[in-house]
Amino acid sequence: MKVKTILVSQPAPKTETSPYFDLSDKQKVKIDFRSFIHVEGISVKEVRAEKLDLHNFSAIILTSRNAVDHFFRIAEEMRFKVPDSMKYFCQSEAVAYYLQKYVVYRKRKIYVGNRTFLELTKLIKKHKTEKFLLPSSDKLKPLIPTELDKLGITWKRVDLYRTVVSDLSDLENVFYDVLVFFSPSGIESLFKNFPNFKQNETRIAAFGNSTVKAVTEAGLKCDIVAPSPENPSMTMALDKYIKEANKK
Questions:
Q1: Exposed/middle/buried for residue 186 (C-beta within 10 Å: 0-12, 13-18, 19+)
Q2: pLDDT at 220 over 70
Q3: Which residues touch 207 (CB under 8 Å, ≥6 apart)?
């Protein structure tokens, strides 16, 4: 079966230089984008019920831009003025750079990991006397609390936002040759929106081991997998698959 249409379960890229646009031009395929999940902030009333006192913390662990947004949202709603002395431990450069939306970057104590959380823990370990707050979503990777506990530091997790299934009802009678997923939540959204979904001739692409596992546990066949040594990105994996499928 040839590939002519692809649905990527993420928001459309904000830049014209996205590799997805290059793939579309190169392989002459139609690529659409649609978020299968989205993030909603948890109300300040719910957060207060957790008896959270922001004054008790001297450092913030930030694993995503969502964590940045919702920490500062809750701080504002609680009328808490974040002190200039607050230390920020960011999982990646992208997260650290995003902090500039809220603070004067060069005047703050910001520590940046090398993309993975394990890399970030090496920096956290050097500041054991701090009291750390971890703003997170309701779906936190188990690795994160496990690694923080190993460090023997004082830390607290607080859920400030949650992952919610998006309404996809308008796609009920729209069919794509390939569906692309990046998290187990995307698969969950697929079946919440379409409980009777049958794969039939649709190809499934999955990024990451946990997503591949979710695909197979849902009784679906995973046709395209990334990352791999040969295809470190999803677009590379799609490109290779389309070449083979469309030459027949």
A1: buried
A2: yes
A3: 180, 181, 182, 226, 227, 234
Does residue 14 carry a pLDDT above 90?
A: no
Task: Provide the pairing of β-strand 154-165 with 37-41.
Answer: antiparallel
Global pTM? 0.80
Question: Tell me, what's the pLDDT at 232?
Answer: 93
SS3 labels along the chain: CCCCEEEECCCCCCCCCCHHHHHHHHHCCEEEECCCEEEEECCHHHHHHCCCCHHHCCEEEECCHHHHHHHHHHHHHCCCCCCCCCEEEECCHHHHHHHHHCCCHHHCEEEECCCCHHHHHHHHHCCCCCEEEEEEECCCCCHHHHHHHHHCCEEEEEEEEEEEECCCHHHCCCCCCEEEECCHHHHHHHHHHCCCCCCCCCEEEEECHHHHHHHHHCCCCCCEEECCCCCCCHHHHHHHHHHHHHCC
Mean of the per-residue pLDDT values for the chain? 95
pLDDT at 248 over 70: no
User: What count of Cα atoms within 13 Å lies in the side-chain half-sphere of residue 43?
Assistant: 3
Residue ranges, comma separated, of all CATH 3.40.50.10090 domains in the chain are: 18-36+170-246, 40-163
Q: Which CATH class is domain 18-36+170-246?
A: alpha beta
- The class (CATH top level) of 40-163 is alpha beta
